Structure formats: C-alpha cells, structure tokens
Amino acid sequence: MLTYTKRFMPELPEVETIARGLAKRVTGDVIESVWLGQKPEPLKSPAREIAAALEHSRILGVRRVGKHIVFDLRQNHGKPPQAWQWIVHLGMTGRMQVCEPQTEIAKHTHAIARLSSGKEVRFVDPRRFGRLSVTRAFQASGIEPLDAKFERFLELFRGRRTPIKSALLNQKLLSGVGNIYADESLFRAGIRPRRRASAITRAQFSKLLAAVKQVLQEAIVAGGSSVSDYVDADGEEGFFQLQHRVYGREGELCPVCDTRIKRVVVAGRSSHYCPQCQK
DNA sequence: ACTATGTCCTGCGAGC
DNA sequence: TGCTCGCAGGACATAG
C-alpha cells in the first residue's frame, strides 16, 4: 500500500521524514555563511537577523514541530554562547536540498546555508508559500497530534460550529494535519468532512483522534523507510507515501464498500469521502 | 471568541 | 502539437 513519489504535500509525516533526513546529514555541522534571495515573501524574519543567527552556528539537531522544521543552533563566538532556532515551513511546494556547492542552483532557490563540511543546505520553493525565520523559543500554535491527550483534544474541538474538516485543518488547535491526512482520518473515523464539530459525539471524537494518530503514524513509518535512501544527485528527497483511500479519488470506488467516492469543497479545500462509510 | 472567505504564487494537466 | 485556463492548498488578513 505504498507509492514512491518525489512530489508530495508537506504535512506532518512528510515534514517528520524530511527533518530526520536533515538531522542525519547535517547534525554537528557548522553554518559558515548564508545567502538569502531577493524575494521577500519567504523571509518571515528580517534577512540580516536570519543571517546573523545562522552564521557561525553549530547545528545541534533538526526536528519537527507541527509542520515546521526546527534547526537547533548554538552560536559559540558570543560569550556566553547563544542558542537559536532556524524555523523552516515548507508551505505547499518548499523543498530542502543538501548538496555540494557545485550542484546547479535550482530555479526558485531562496536561501543557501554553506556548511563547514563543504555541503550546502538549500531552500527551494516555487510557489513561495514557505517561510523562513529565526527565534529563540519556538512554540507550536496547537497540540501535537501524536502526543494529544483525548480530554484536551475534546476540549479544543467539541462545541465548535465549524465543519470538522475545518477544525482539523486549524493549526491553532492541532498542529500538523493538512488536507490529505484530514480526509484520510475522517474516512477511517467514519465522519463526513462537513459534519459540524458540535454534532460529533464523544465516542466519535475518540475514534477520530485514534484515526488521526494511526494515519499519521503509518505515514511516518512509510516515509521513514525512505530517509536518506532516496536522495537523488541534486540532494532531493524522494518518499514512500501511504496509498490514499479517499483523497484524490473522486468517482473511484471506496476500498471498503465499493460506493463511489464523492468530492465536496469545505473551507475552500477539496474534500473526499465515502457517502456510505462516512455519516 | 469564533467563523467564513479571499488572497497569495507557480506548475501542471485537462481540454480544445 | 501548442495554447489557454483553472485548479492545487497552508497560513494569514479581513470582515462579519
């Protein structure tokens, strides 16, 4: 039930896979210098602030928080040493390359960090929905889906009049679920995307949180098998992804009951569901 | 406090 | 074959 892909939507499992791949390849390295492109949109912090935080910093580790990649940095040349975090959000089309300096610079490259090992970390993003920033105390806006306690989840979601799909996509509530895994989770939980959160029972919420965790975990396992094993000559990651059961399958037959999968628009996003399995 | 909607941006694929 | 056009969606702004 896996597909190999080079194109993907960076939701929680994909960002987790990318962060692990980056951690494996650049942890311990030192950023010597930084180049930032002219396009202002991808820079959430001022360019000179980003450059000042990154340059001469050692990469202590790379991890994922929600859909964000967090580089934990330590800058030794100050007294005392300064702790920084380089935050990368991939948006829709953002990619992180780890490559040699002579690798041709891809179109839409917005940032390059040159490392003392000789490698470069590059941020490439055609659509420029991605964002770069630096901070000292990064905090996710919502709860981590994989660690979420049911009572907290319930407290955040119950009673809202918005469609459950919209609530799942709201990063201030739950950090990391995007359009694809929202649809897949709702399918597994048997809930239609347009159902108002306030009309969902406690038992259904319980099933939903379990489904969210299961879908994300399975996708991480699928992606995890590809960490650092499917990097092409330009340092681009490839992935194994879970086969989607409903997402992008409008008009196809439900894998459970053979009913045709429907597509509706919720919160301006295409949403796919089985009218038989989901109520 | 919440909710709904519009906007950004480029690549790609459907359709003619 | 070559062109146009509309869709894809994460996060934020804005309005109600």
Describe the protein in words.
The chain is an alpha+beta fold and 279 residues long. The chain folds into 2 domains: 128 residues, N-terminal domain of MutM-like DNA repair proteins; 129 residues, Helicase, Ruva Protein, domain 3. The protein is 25% helix and 26% strand. The protein contains 6 helices and 12 strands. The strands form 3 sheets. The protein has an 8-stranded antiparallel sheet. A hairpin with a 2-residue loop joins strand 11 and strand 12. Helix 1 packs parallel to helix 6 and helix 5 packs across helix 6. The longest helix has 23 residues. The chain binds a DNA duplex (16 and 16 nucleotides) through loops.
List the topology elements.
Layout: E1 2-5, H1 12-26, E2 30-36, H2 47-54, E3 57-65, E4 68-75, E5 82-89, E6 95-99, E7 109-115, E8 120-124, E9 131-135, H3 150-157, H4 164-169, H5 179-189, H6 202-224, E10 239-242, E11 262-266, E12 269-273
Antiparallel strand pairs: 1-10, 2-3, 2-7, 3-4, 4-5, 5-9, 6-8, 7-8, 11-12
Helix pairs in contact: 1-6, 5-6
The protein binds a DNA duplex (16 and 16 nucleotides) through residues 9-11, 41, 67, 89-93, 108, 125-131, 160-162, 166, 169, 171, 178-179, 267-270.
